[in-house]
Amino acid sequence: MTAGERIMLLRSDRGYTREQLAGLADISEKFLYEIEMGKKGFSAITLLNLSRALEVSLDYIMTGTGSRKYEDEIVATLEKFKPNSLEMVDRLLKTAYELSQI
Questions:
Q1: pTM: predicted TM-score of the whole model, two decimal places
Q2: pLDDT of 69 over the 90 cut
């Protein structure tokens, strides 16, 4: 998968339109389209703006590896729970997610 394809997938996962993400990254919608389609490259500043807007690391956009923002902190917190309580934590997280969608 190319960096542009990852950006398009992340944009879609977050529910952003191309116009919304372009605004957050301070680039034009047309330029974002060209990045996503692999027609144009981009500068380090544009990469940084996109990674911040999408809440992922720079290496995640470029290589598909690395972590999404907050992933390490969330995993560290989950590891503090006893195994027998993880089912309850999972239910709480799902409930919190559903409430956030209202």
A1: 0.67
A2: no
